[in-house]
Amino acid sequence: MAAGGFGIDGTDLSIMIPTFNCAAYLGSALDSLRHQGVDAAQVVVVDDCSTLDDPEAVVAEHGWDGVRFHRHPRNLGLLGNFRSCLDMAERPWVQLLHGDDFMLPGGYAELASVVDAHPQA
After folding, report:
1. DSSP line for 2-46
2. Mind listing the pLDDT tens digit for each residue in 69-112?
């Protein structure tokens, strides 16, 4: 996507990825963002003090330049982690892509076409 509802290459999009003990799926979530045409989007993995796995290692393996990792100093709980994701988002459009979810190919192009069709949203 060269331009559209999320700006040129996603410049208006924050993809915030809340995680807690789901590193086994996080690599797939990050991999699903590649080749979506949103290379300029803000991408942050926000970990809520995982105790069973190492999401930072997954980000190091599956991430790319521009993907940031943040680990809270203490567990905030599900809603607290979601709220911190929203607080850290820097762009006008925000997606919470949970660490155990993924985007289908062409997903952002489809979402951008809806945004383009409804600019008042």
Report:
1. -SSTT-GGGTTEEEEEEESS-HHHHHHHHHTTTTSS-TTSEEEEE
2. 999 999 999 999 999 999 999 999 999 999 999 999 999 999 99
